[in-house]
Design goal:
By secondary structure, the protein is an alpha+beta fold. It contains 6 helices and 5 strands, in the order ααααβββαββα.
Amino acid sequence: MKFDFSKLKELNELDFEQLATWPFEVKTVVALFVAIITLIGGYYTLVKDKLPLLEKAQLQELDLKRNYQGKYNIAVNLPAYEEQLARLKKDFSSMLKSLPTSNETPGLLDDITFVGTSAGLTFKLLNWQQEIPKEFYTELPIQIEVTGNYHAFGKFVSDIAALPRIVTVHDFEVSQERANLKLKLAAKTYRAEFTDSGQDK
């Protein structure tokens, strides 16, 4: 059927009571107009107010997808994480065993004295200093003064590092004392501040 645009001139003379007799072209234009008005009205009355909710839901969907992806990656790598955790626990346990207990700290002075005299040093001072509490451990400083030569100092420090318990050395100060050299340093060892039962938790 050919669309006759000339019939549209009758739009101004339409009688709504004679709707059935309207030309096809007029009915088509009126139907399109009504459809457009309906769509516009539907958008403003039904859709527009829901758009913020849609946007919020889309953002929530993205967050859920990201969370899911993160949890999926963890789940896929769970065996590797468990293996890493077991290795960390083993290393941590090994390090804890390297920390002296309260019963072992007095013996550390004997060990330090032994490695020092074995290196050919003479002790002028070897004393525990005041303990320094930290969050998970206590620092136990030792003040040391020895006399000897450079090679003996190097062997002494090396032997301290090789002790079975963790001992660190700090604040080296070397000075001349008559025919010998004098070394002043601070050694530190550490005591864990939680029990084995606390470690297992």
